[in-house]
Amino acid sequence: MERQPFAIDQEEAVGGGRLNGDQAGRNIHVVYFLSRKGRVEHPHLIRIQPPISSNGVRLK
Where is this region: Disordered (predicted)? Predict the structure, then answer.
């Protein structure tokens, strides 16, 4: 399985602006695809809650 790293801009992910008290409980939905033997599998979804002090979310 091979995963390609990418970054999510926090402003785009939560609809603009940095996280504040109103947005602190919001989750970011991440859709990713795995590949095996050159074939792309079905989409996978994870939901993450970014740290309040974060300047964005980086997935590896």
Answer: 1-20
Full-model pTM? 0.45
Query: Could you report the per-residue pLDDT of 12-25, keeping only the tens digit for each?
Result: 444 444 445 555 56
> 57: helix, coil or strand?
strand
β-bridge partners, 58: 7
Token pair recorded at residue 20:
């504040």
> Where residue 2 falls among pLDDT bands split at 50, 70, 90?
low
User: Which residues contact residue 3 at a Cβ distance below 8 angstroms, ignoring those fewer than 6 apart?
Assistant: 32, 34, 60
